[in-house]
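Sample entry (186 residues):
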Amino acid sequence: MKELPDLINAIELAFYYDDLVLVEEEVPNLIEVTLPIIGNQQPQPAYLERPLLKAGDFFDFNTKYLSGGKKSGGQKTDQNSQGYSEIPAKLDKKLYQQAEDLGVKVFKVFSLSGIARVDMLIDAKLQKVYFNEINPLPGSLYAHNFQKFGISNIDLVIKLIDLAFDKFQDSQAIQKVFSTNYLKQF
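Predicted structure, serialized as tokens:
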């Protein structure tokens, strides 16, 4: 949608369905990547992951949930939720590091804890990484990625429990109640 009249028409159509419309800048030469991260104050990223879809394909509901998981009853394909991506993403070392650094920075800036997934978009031509979105509790915990990184499913769950206990302990040090007689005067 490169023509202004098309954009205006699309925005008007969107306002027909809702009173709030978000318009985002296009990222040309697109490479999508995602970074699962675990931790509290000391975030530990797993591998940067890159979806392996053909141009024009989308990682949609059918691909993610209905294309071959034993529980879903779908047919087995090469693009199911555990086999659709390249782990670690095969990117230039500098670009890989830039994306990993941005993912960890986002994790810290938003004060995330436990486990989260940070999604990013890369303009391959400009070698520029853009933050896209956070999934603060990825459904699969991205266990497949952490396994490749060397953290077993059992260790992943134990680590998450330990992080939750640590977060709880830290929260106990915060004063939540204070005594005052101020309201008694009214």
